[in-house]
Amino acid sequence: MSERELQDAVIELARLLGWRVAHFRPARVRRGGREIYETPVAADGKGWPDLVLVRGSRLIFAEMKSGTGRLSDAQIAWK
User: Fold this and answer.
1) Where are the alpha helices (DSSP H) in 17-52?
2) What's the rounded Cα separation, in Å, for the pair 11 and 22?
3) pLDDT digit of tens for each residue in the chain (79 aa)?
4) Residues 35, 29: contact at Cβ < 8 Å?
5) What gap in Å lies between CA 30 and CA 58, rounded to an integer?
6) How large is the greatest C-alpha to C-alpha distance in the chain, in angstroms?
7) The whole model's pTM is what?
8) How far apart are alpha carbons 40 and 75 in whole angstroms?
9) Count of other CB atoms within 10 angstroms of residue 65
């Protein structure tokens, strides 16, 4: 299962269970003459988790990784 498929399944299940879900998609930008995808963030946002789930007073931050996926240094900093 890809990270995208995992994320879609988690979002669907969370909604079925009454959670509100936020996901900030990367934007296509040009840097140094090449096209890349990055999530536009300010301050310390680099590496921000893929999903934020809220239900009542409960809050979950979730980073989606496939079986072979690895956390970047920026993602580890948010652990």
Assistant:
1) none
2) 9
3) 888 899 999 999 999 999 999 998 777 788 888 887 777 776 777 888 999 999 999 999 999 998 888 999 989 998 8
4) yes
5) 38
6) 45
7) 0.76
8) 15
9) 14
In three-state secondary structure terms, 17 is coil
Given this model, what pLDDT does residue 56 score? 97
- Residue 35: its H or E element: strand 34-38
Q: How much is the pLDDT for 27?
A: 76
Rounded-to-integer distance, Cα 23 and Cα 67, Å: 21
Amino acid symbol at 77: A
CB 71 within 8 A of CB 30: no
Please state the φ and ψ torsions of residue 22, each to the nearest 5 degrees. Answer: -120, 135
